[in-house]
Specification:
- The chain is 36% helix and 26% strand.
- The chain is of the alpha/beta class and 393 residues long.
- It has a single domain (2-171, 269-386), classed as FAD/NAD(P)-binding domain.
Length: 393
């Protein structure tokens, strides 16, 4: 079968690998002008790693992953450790160690594994037509391509989603801006094997270890959307928001080189919806479930899409349309649950009003790790990659 995938990100490239290995003729088109994956890093929890293992990439992913053995919360104003605990139960109960990874490294691994010669860049899709026998895709440069099945992995502002749903689905601002990037690992910020998160005032500054003796840092500032920012300002907004915080945070700010790795991203998500398929066209990844990063499941959920879509295409034979409906039926509830969990978590951590965030801070000072681990594992337990029984008590 001829399959076109729009988008060479984590979801699109992983789907390309899986579907090509099923024997399909797969081509990926992406609007990026040159082969330079972007983004700082991401959390690969056990469910996401397992999909990559299933794709035959276990050794490569382990090499990219940071060894994150412990986790702690620290009072950002005083430097007091509120709680610290091992992440070993996540590995023991799920059967797979989680890894933070540099996003560009993972995306390049997936693209190279799929085959760079089968990825066409600088190709912005502008139109889709499905006549019931094949799908025709039109690009901004006037070129067209035809296929038996079209997969839209074209991100949060997906054109494919508009085609599938008829449009009208709007993103919602989550209430905060995220600043992120990669810096040299520094024990003054946190232990080199630890996910360290400084919290206070509804703000958050965190580091996770990734390969290459680096920390992935992410910093959240609750604020209105649309505030002006120019790259020439560098980390000035962070100096303003965190200048009075403890020494570990100051060491982090001092280590950031905006010219090397620094991103500013307003965080938006989309209310869950359940129409992912129209005829021979389907969506996956952020196009289907744009999720705030508050539980670290965005990329993992895209990888779950890849797993389920591939299983469906490899095992159902009535028709393409029937198979895609089965994919949709299998995925939308699970993806919706993660979107809403991330939204709820963001409300708890970012002090949008009321006592919710202060109550959370108080709970952290009494935390043994049990409740945090229950939440992390709870996000993994219902993953389709577990086949219903891979999380052990």
């Amino acid at each position: 079968m001829r399959i076109i995938i729009i988008g060479a990100g984590i979801g699109g490239a992983s789907a390309g690998i899986a579907l090509a290995r099923l024997g399909h003729e797969v081509t990926i088109y992406d609007r990026m002008r040159e082969n330079k994956p972007v983004g700082a890093a991401l959390s690969l929890w056990s469910n996401g790693v397992k999909v990559l293992n299933w794709l035959g990439l276990s050794e490569q992913v382990a090499e990219l992953g940071g060894l994150m053995d412990t986790m702690s919360y620290v009072d950002g104003l005083t430097g007091e450790t509120m709680c610290a605990f091992s992440l070993a139960p996540v590995t023991e109960r799920t059967g797979q160690r989680p890894y933070p990874v540099a996003r560009a490294d993972l995306q390049m691994l997936l693209m190279e594994t799929f085959g760079l010669d089968k990825i066409h860049l600088n190709m912005k899709m502008v139109g889709i037509e499905d006549d019931g026998e094949e799908v025709t895709v039109t690009f901004a440069n006037g070129e067209t391509a035809t296929c038996d099945l079209l997969i839209g992995a074209d991100g949060a502002n997906s054109i494919t989603r508009d085609y599938v749903t008829g449009g009208g689905i709007e993103r919602k601002y989550s209430g905060y801006t995220n600043f992120n990037g990669l810096v040299a690992a520094d024990p003054r910020v946190g232990p080199l094997d630890r996910w360290t998160t400084y919290v206070g005032e509804g703000k958050r500054a965190a580091v996770m270890p990734v390969a290459g003796d680096r920390f992935y840092f992410f910093v959240d500032v609750p604020q209105p959307d649309g505030l002006p920012y120019d790259k020439s300002e560098g980390i000035a907004p962070l100096r303003e928001a965190f200048g009075h915080w403890t020494g570990g945070v100051q060491a982090l700010l001092d280590s950031i080189d905006p010219a090397v790795s620094f991103n500013r991203v307003e965080i938006w998500d989309i209310d869950p919806f359940h129409t992912w398929v129209k005829g021979r066209v389907a969506i996956l990844g952020d196009a289907a479930h744009n999720t705030a990063p508050d539980i670290g499941q965005g990329a993992c959920s895209a990888l779950e899409d890849t797993f389920v879509l591939s299983i469906m295409l490899g095992s159902n034979t009535i028709s393409i349309e029937d198979t895609l409906k089965r994919y949709e039926h299998s995925r939308t509830d699970r993806a919706a649950d993660l979107v809403l969990k991330a939204r709820k978590r963001g409300e708890e951590t970012h002090d949008y009003g009321g006592d919710l965030t202060e109550s959370w801070y108080a709970s952290l000072r009494k935390e043994s790790g049990e409740n945090v681990l229950r939440g992390i594992i709870g996000n993994i337990v219902d993953s389709p990659i577990n086949l219903g029984g891979a999380v052990l008590d």
